[in-house]
Design a protein that fits this description.
Blueprint: E1 5-10, E2 14-21, E3 28-31, E4 37-42, H1 47-56, H2 58-75, E5 83-84, E6 89-94, E7 101-105, E8 108-113, H3 122-154, E9 161-165, E10 172-174, E11 179-183, H4 191-203, H5 212-221, H6 226-233
Parallel strand pairs: 2-4, 6-8, 9-11
Antiparallel strand pairs: 1-2, 3-4, 5-6, 7-8, 10-11
Helix pairs in contact: 3-4, 4-5
């Protein structure tokens, strides 16, 4: 009987973890949080079959692995880590301080740290991410309501209230009661994409579905750039500052 877990060494992709599952009907590929490639295979799939499947999908698997590695790279905040978004900046500076601290500047958050400060400790990472998220929320609470209200008035629309949340997986939402939620991570996007997301949610005040009329109205609100902005938005990810529980 084949083992439920084994490894395959691939010259291009490196070590791949193979997990055989009685319910699997085909090869399913994904990456873990460290960027390792995982394949779930049918229980009796041979190593030859799995290797052939890997080679058939090699370009796609390389891209999948690269995306996972890129996410892992930005998940660690180091002294050289920077955020240079249109409406928000973050950087770190060595200073004559007794302990790590952060200070708000106009549109920015600066971390001051003493010489020899350890950044890699999980507790430090969680604290830095928490400080960045708090700052993103504060800036969003100042900037977003005015912008959203101006867009709504220009379109003759009314929303009931706006909330800023730390949401992963979606940039915004709109309820049937007209309540709009926006992710604080919108602060990391270029301003035209922030406004595209806001216009998207405002359009739901007219059309709650994603039918043909919805996309027509949204396209009108962004001067015909809806498809372009939608494709551009896919290059961004709300999980930049996500850490696994227990790290």
């Amino acid at each position: 009987m084949l083992p439920s877990e084994s490894f395959i060494e691939d010259p291009t992709l490196g070590r791949i973890l193979v997990r055989r599952n009685v319910r699997a009907r085909r090869l399913i590929f994904r990456t873990d949080d460290e960027g390792m490639l995982l394949v779930t295979a049918p229980l009796h799939a041979s190593e030859k079959t799995i290797r052939e499947g890997i080679q058939a999908l090699l370009p796609r698997l390389e891209k999948m692995q690269k995306r996972a590695e890129d996410k892992q790279a930005v998940r660690q905040i180091t002294p050289s880590f920077r955020i240079d978004a249109q409406d928000f900046s973050f950087w770190s500076e060595e200073a004559r301080v007794s302990r790590m601290t952060v200070r708000q500047r106009q549109g920015a958050l600066v971390c001051y740290y003493p010489a020899g400060q350890e950044f890699q400790h999980p507790q430090i990472q969680r604290w830095l991410i928490s400080m960045i998220e708090q700052s993103l929320r504060l800036h969003a609470q100042v900037l977003f309501p005015t912008r959203l209200e101006a867009m709504a008035q220009a379109r003759g629309l009314r929303f009931s209230n706006l909330s800023i949340h730390k949401t992963h997986g979606r940039w915004g939402s709109c309820s049937t009661a007209g309540r709009i939620n926006l992710s604080l991570y919108l602060m990391l996007l270029p301003r035209h994409l922030q406004e595209y997301v806001m216009q998207h949610e405002l359009t739901h005040l007219v059309e709650m579905n994603h039918g043909t009329r919805f996309w027509q109205l949204l396209d009108q609100s962004v001067q015909g750039h809806s498809e372009e902005y939608r494709r551009e938005l896919k290059r961004y990810d709300t999980s930049v500052f996500t850490l696994k529980q227990g790290e």
